[in-house]
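Sequence in, structure out. First:
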Amino acid sequence: MYKCMALAAQKAQDFNMRSRFLAGTRVTHSLNTLITSRRNCFCQPIRSFLESKASSSSTKHAPLHQSCCHTWPQRWFHSVSTSENQSLRGCRCFSSSFNADAGSMGITAGSLKKKTKVRTFYVCEHCGESYGQWWGKCNSCKMQGTLRKITQRLEEGGGAGLRAAEGANIGLFPQDHSAPLAQQPSESAQNSSRSSKPLLGKSWLRVGSILGPQRLTDVLKGITTSQWRMPLVGGTGMEIARVLGGGLVPGSLILLGGDPGVGKSTLLLQLCSILADGCEFYEPAPVLYVSGEESEEQISSRADRLNLSSEDLFLYSATDLELILREIQQLRPRAVVIDSIQTIYLPEAVGSAGSVVQVRECAAALLRIAKRNQLPIFLVGHVTRSGDIAGPRVLEHIVDVVLYLEGENGLSHRILRVVKNRFGSTDEVGVFEMVENGLAVVENPSQLFLSQREEESGGPVSGAIAVTMEGSRPFLVEIQALCTGSTSHFIKHSVNGLDPQRLHMILAVLSKLAGVKVEHQNVLINIVGGLQVREPAVDLAVAVSICSSYLDRQIPHDMAFIGEIGLGGEIRPVKQLDKRISEVSKLGFKRCIIPKAAEKAVRVSLVESVKLVHCATIQEVIQKIVDTFSPV
């Protein structure tokens, strides 16, 4: 079409039909003259198009003077209807070579496109908060000078991530490569759902699936709860499945964060081997591990150290997301791991890899691929100095599950904690131990967090056994306390594994109500094993360990403490008391101090194996320490 229009302009120039100003006289020519004199120069589609435009009232007598002779093809092009456009595209003169001919008329391909909008905003490099204008300080994280200007092109049809996902055009995976969740809708659901036109590029629904709202009963008809998840076998696999809520959900986007060297890549490489080998619930299938930080040889060396030799585990080292999506389309894997999201980039998006725009667009593209194809995708995220995942906060909002792998330097155990889970509870944790063959599950976590104490051993450091709940699992931890007199006016309170504000509250209650004058003492608290305790059920054990060190009274080794301390000195009951006492009984403890208000909430069977001591206030507990506990 453009080539024919350029040819028409050239013919008009040869016959002096272009408008011009000569001696102040305006010479005009109509389009009818052009069509009548040179109708044989055009093919039938272009001739029909020009004749229809010439017959319209807006162009029939429109003069072609010098100011508009170069722009009339553009005005016609924008007024072309959909049917006319399709017919002109079938013309023999329509080709990509029109640029050279149209260039003489001042027409470019970019001038015929819709004008691109440009959005300018400012993003905080520290927390990822965005603002419409520049401020000297980020109002979210209160950091100075961290706002950076970002210019983003907004084109019709979505951002760079949307276009990359649409360009991949990944089809449905075979049934044996996915969980039962990826099955097609039942026939009753198809009959009951109303028909609607496909919303191409706007929906997460898979190609060929039912579009439009569906009844909840029709969606869930014939599908049990166990069919919505992909089971994971083995000790490590079962521990990960329990943290995820019972298994891996097809189509989920999972973000795993953690400090450098904590074992994120090792854990995901073991998980890839489990999924690739298959089990009694599903057959072996390809699993793709993509790394933007390591080469294939380096990943293979780590797999050899972990004794992983799965034939269906594919390694791919790349950072271009378009290349990664192309490999996913060809391989059609059961699961994909991206290590890490901060190293992946889209060529169309602005900024370098790891920037706010790049991370957001890459995550949006991967989310679309995961939802459309029921493909579980794992993303590894870097963390900042404060422990948060690097990049924009919207990354944690986009994904379905956010996991953190925690561990202290010099300690062998690792804790997999879930922060966000759309498919299960956020209270579950998994406990692993770093061994020669990778991360192994810890069968009895309570023994891991209990120190090696000798019977009736004395010393200035006192330890009390507390029972904490991590999700549905009770953990027994030892809380150590050391009180020393201060030689200066500066008092130091140091705590490891506990909230410092919680410690200050307990010290104030002991000093005001229990008569334990620790306001002039340096108090040091340590939780053995490096576990981070977040619940108040350990308050009683913390208070008892402080009193034991201050009063030089030894705590019996067969006693545990459960209870929360209020500001009035009362001991409050805690949740899931039966599970806590049951764990105390399994590990051989004979006595347990619990709140008096929870006396009726404990089953009789537990009382027979463990002697329960009921106390109402912290003063009563301190009195029992002074009267019963042996001096150091």
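Second:
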Amino acid sequence: MSSQSLRYLTRLRLLKLAPSSSRSISASPLLGRRNQRGPGEGTPFRGNQKGVPADRGGMTIDDLIVPKSLPELSTSGTMDNEWLTDIDVGTVSLVVEEFMRRPMVRQQSEENGLTDKIFMKSFLSFRAHCLNVAGLEPALAVTLKDIIHDKHDVERLFPYFLSHARRIFPHLEAMDDLRMISDLTQPHNWYPEARTVQRKIFFHAGPTNSGKTYHALQRFRESKSGVFCGPLKLLASEVFTRLSSDGFKVDMVTGEERRFAVDNLHPSPHISCTVEMLSTNMRVEAIRDSSLPSLQVAVIDEIQMLRDEQRGWAWTRALLGVAADEVHLCGEVAAIDIVKKLLEPIGETVEVITYERKTPLTIAERGLGTLSDVQPADCIVCFSKRNIFSITKRLEMLGIKPAVIYGDLPPGTKLAQAAKYNDVDDPCNVLVATDAIGMGLNLNIRRIIFASTVRQGKLLPTYSALQIAGRAGRYGTAHEGGVVTTLRPSDLNVLKDIIAKPPIDSVGIAPTFDQIETFSFHLPQASFVRLLDIFVSVCSVSDHFFICTVNQMKELAQLIDRIPLPLKIRYTLCISPINVNNNKFAEAAFIKMARRFSSGQSLTADWLFDIVGWPPIPVTNLNDLVHLENVYEILDTYLWLSLRFPDMLPDEEIVRQAGKQVDNLIREGVENMSKLLGGHDGKQGSIDRTNERKARSAEEEREEEEREKEEEEESLAMPGEKKRRGNSVLERMMARGVLSKEEAATLKKEILEKEGQEI
């Protein structure tokens, strides 16, 4: 250390003895405030959860913003000789550290929007900047020289520090604008067209199979113009087909398809659509085009879905934004109170019309216990494709050939399997399905059997459990009542607790593209993923709302983060329906689509077929089936994008026909599920083999249930509390009583001897 640095250090020590001296680092304002709080008074635990506003336990903007790198200033000989004389790095370091300790510096930083984390990041960057003595700008170099030689106050550095902080954190000068843009507390104001209408709201409330949607659709048919908003394209298609078959002119709009009663030049005044495809500008469009009538009736089905973590925003948007004279809501009684609260600020009242279920629905007194007790007209509901295949195989071993329905199957295959199950002349009279049966399919189910009460590591949501359970014993089927139970007896009480119908206290909401675009103008350096995180962190949401998860959007955004794209195209790609979770094939196709967009080249059918490996081959095993499902999803994504970018994706009809071809191949594969699973058709197998399968089925079911139960317990356990399994197959077999300790030791010895001989 130079003599000059020693002299400055001595002066600092003398200053610390004076009454006006600044605090030491350990007694800085930040740490001091924390230490002065009593138990429970410290900084609230935030949890650093992504996808949640900061004031509700999510990550703050301080956690997400990365300081911007600044170019180093070039030095000149004049600067080295004049302004930097007698200034060394050690002395500058002491000056800057003393500056950081001053209470006034912390106070003024806070007044200028620098939080504790931003302050420390800024200070470290500013310190590194100052220590690069040869690259200092003249004004800062002169100020440092005055502080060191002429004993000027270190607080004179503050303007330079603040300027530096704003350069590396540009958002500091735009925080007020960012908060204003991300203010989601008044979503009613997002829909000016709807606010110009004195809407009448009717709530058709009741359980599944009570006729509420039927009565709402009657008003839809009577109206001069209307829109039906369904939760699934299957349901929108069903309404379209049913009304069209009666000679009623209606168009259909889903994310992947448009169908017209006449043609696109003569649109129908009635539309059946998925809820996400609802236009909140219909009244404005009618004013601009005199051939279009203003919207008279809107029917929003399954309104309780507004509490869904991923899609709830679409129902909230429809409720607040549809510009219709009459709005008919159909859903559970549990949604009545929250709907009234949402509409209260805009002075709209709700007329409730209640319905009772047309057939009785009862919960069984005990769980099924074993698959051997499965009966005709049963439906076993699973929540993963793996469990679908597992239970299907176990049923096949019992001589039962079930129909199979799950979410990844194309609509045509689902309808074919539903028809097979409903056909009284078909020997297939048992269904294994996921929650995909909850909406949009008419099924002759007498008993619903929940194979599990856990979905994706969480307890099944109430609205989903009620929707699935309500499929049993529907009015108009061969069954006068429905029964609900569980496969495992221990799950029955859990299911009862789930369907206890707690009221809905908050609904989903999501930012619009316009909000995100405006937000991005103030953060030009932020990637789209970072932009989403920052928006969610900064946004403010009122008590009745929550931000819907953007995990799937972010997952897609990360894949194409380095591909140059306009924000609108990037945003649209990231909300496309493709699922890339643990799917390298779909992931690669999505990235190639984004690169094609970036290059400005059209995404032709030939180009797409080259990606998916056309033509497809018939299904011979489960891997082939899964691959074709992925191919269908990619084709479906192409159709979805083609409706938004028709110039870039010109071959919609060719790809649609290709999708039908893949659907047929998948349908054939599912029809031969027993062969894909390596089993045999129970009717064709010998009686001895069937009896043998039945004899060992109880033990296999017990082992399978134990394994599934362990996985569910692990998925629900807190971090650090995961249930430990045996470290080897032998240990697990011993734990189940299959092998004794002596037998395991003998087996291990024989294996070692065998390995020794091979070596």
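Remark: Residues 4-48, 76-81, 679-698, 712-727 have pLDDT under 50 and may be disordered.
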